[in-house]
Amino acid sequence: MSSVNTFVIVGGGLAAGKAAEALREHGHTGPLLVISDEKEPPYVRPPLSKGYLLGKEERDSIFVHPEEWYANNAVDLFLGTSVRAVDPLAKEVELDNGRRVSYGGLLLATGSSPRRLRVPGADLGNVLYLRRVGDSERLKAAFTAGARIVVIGDGWIGLETAAAARMAGAQVTVLGHGDLPLMKVLGREAAEVFAQLHMDHGVRLRSRVEVERITGAGGRADGVLLSDGTRLDADAVVVGVGITPNVQLAEQAGLEVRNGIVTDAHLRSSVPGIYAAGDVANAYHPFLDRHVRVEHWANALNQPETAARSMLGQDAVYDRLPYFYTDQYDLGMEYTGYTEADGYDRVVFRGDLDQRRFVAFWMSGRRVLAGMNVNVWDVVDPIRALVQSRTDIDDALLADPEVPLGSLLP
Question: CA-CA distances (angstroms) from residue 264 to 13, 269, 271, 282, 309?
């Protein structure tokens, strides 16, 4: 096969599957390979902690495309195959079996891996993480009525798995470092909403704790020992303490790596012919005027369009605002925009926090940086428009549910 018009995608998630689709849609007619170390065709990860974990979605629903789509679109799937090395000078990838594949364009959609817990006992059999479809199936098997589940980590994955365990009838304790779950992400007032939600559903929240060790016998965990001497019985331990971008290939190939693979707004890496998308890409964002790495589904869904067009020599820029969502019990939430923990002055609320039906706005001066709608629907577009408009807006108007959000736009 001609190396010049052979495109190679490394990864097995949503970004890889959507990039293959976008390359074909935008006119790439040459050979196209997707190489993934997973046994499954590319699949979507949110259901692993949401619908699929809850038993509401069938296994087939998690895949980006039906398997026959790849054959119908002449996309070669190399599954259960690792890329051992990338050689940018020769424009080749080396597979784990020693085979070398030439490329004209290479997209790294290698995603991320869960951070491992580094305490004694962390390698016991029923200490569970969530990243791949098999992980979700192991969690589902562990979440049974009456099972004692200890969740280490109170971020999004920790809380979504806690909700799934409670809905299956398990007894759940969530352990966190800070004062409240999601405190660093949302700030105190919004974080209190999620803390109360879980307490109302019978979850025990333990804040400001350090895990000393995981106890167990016969290769299986049976409890978690905290640094204050408290021991919590556990039939399974779930660890959700963040993720790390999979940058090993990029580093070894000499790409610029800094909290992910550094790219420009076109998703081009520092090495010609190599691109990055999804969790692993620390991409320059023109609207935010900075590099951001977004660990959420919407990026993996939308960035491949830009990456594919860039690979084909078209002028495409990725400037969509970050977006993510969560479903926990009877709470549905969408978050649009971007701010860091120290990047805003205050949060303005419209609606009823106690009823968990509201919109929150993260403000810098009189400008909206981000908005989160909780059990309020069809407002993502006006929230996005408010952020992008950079308009000065009065807090009182933002807080008044009688004032349509669209009317605040210039």
Answer: 22, 7, 11, 9, 14
Distances in Å between the alpha carbon of 130 and those of 26, 156, 209, 242, 384? 34, 12, 22, 10, 30
pLDDT of residue 1: 46
307, burial (CB in 10 Å: exposed 0-12, middle 13-18, buried 19+):
buried
| Residue ranges, the chain, pLDDT below 70 | 1-3
Give me the pLDDT at residue 307, please. Answer: 98
The full set of domains in the chain, from first to last, is 7-113+243-311 (3.50.50.60), 127-239 (3.50.50.60), 330-408 (3.30.390.30)
Residues contacting 404, CB < 8 A, separation 6+: 382
Contact yes or no for 344/372 (Cβ under 8 A): no
Exposure b/e, 320-349, CB count within 10 A at least 16 = b: bbbbbbbbbbebebbbbbbbeeeebeebbb
pLDDT of residue 4: 73
pLDDT for 2 equals 54
* Dihedral pair phi/psi, residue 280, rounded to 5°: -85, -15
In this prediction the pTM is 0.96
Query: Which residues, in sequence order, are CB contacts of 252 under 8 Å at separation 6+?
Result: 85, 86
- Count of residues in the chain: 410
Q: Which residue has the tokens 């993996």?
A: 300
Q: What tens digit of pLDDT does each residue of 259-292 get?
A: 999 999 999 999 999 999 999 999 999 999 999 9
